[in-house]
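re: the backbone from monday

yeah here it is again, tokenized this time
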């Protein structure tokens, strides 16, 4: 028990130091997490019936808010999305610019900021079960919803006939099983690294 208490004190100190970092240091951390997300995006599987690939990047999104906090977690995903749109080739398969996945990128920013906000503010949210629920909610509503809305628009502009069933088959169904596994893994890591006490987030 003494080891557990000391480990939690260490985590609390690290998170307090993270909050107290200078803005340039926080920018470096945000860009590092953006690059990490881009790296995981290269682990991809393309399916023949959807323009949206299966990747590991959601795992980084879920952890960005926990590790960087609400503002800088969201900023890291905004940097990932914005720099990729501007030409940095770190989307899946080394892609950049606008495409069918733009809505999911918007959702990444929202989800990271939301997870960071709840993690920073509520100690009870840092257990495995509440963290899994939090991350699953963020994935279902904050990533899938803008992702599907943009995919619908993108397909329509391209001249495709779009129905609710077809867009869900392309933009949601192929990713559910993998996202459950990524959410479990992210929640386990969050439970390990997040302090079990208040670290004075503002």
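seq for it, each position gets an aa:
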């Amino acid at each position: 028990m003494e080891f557990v208490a000391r480990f939690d004190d260490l985590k609390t100190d690290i998170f307090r130091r993270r909050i107290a970092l200078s803005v340039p240091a926080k920018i470096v951390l945000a860009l590092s997490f953006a690059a990490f997300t881009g790296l995981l995006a290269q682990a991809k599987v393309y399916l023949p019936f959807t323009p949206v690939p299966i990747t590991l990047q959601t795992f980084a999104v879920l952890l960005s808010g926990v590790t960087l906090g609400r503002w800088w977690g969201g900023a890291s995903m905004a940097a990932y999305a914005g720099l990729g749109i501007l030409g940095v080739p770190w989307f899946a398969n080394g892609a950049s610019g606008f495409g069918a996945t733009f809505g999911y990128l918007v959702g990444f920013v929202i989800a990271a900021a939301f997870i960071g906000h709840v993690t920073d503010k509520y100690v009870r949210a840092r257990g495995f079960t509440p963290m899994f629920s939090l991350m699953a909610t963020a994935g279902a509503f904050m990533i899938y919803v803008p992702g599907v809305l943009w995919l619908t628009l993108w397909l329509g502009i391209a001249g495709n006939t779009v129905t609710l069933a077809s867009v869900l088959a392309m933009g949601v169904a192929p990713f559910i099983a993998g996202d459950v596994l990524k959410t479990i893994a992210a929640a386990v890591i969050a439970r390990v690294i997040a302090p079990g006490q208040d670290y004075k987030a503002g």
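The chain has a mean pLDDT of 92. The two ends are 29 Å apart (CA to CA).
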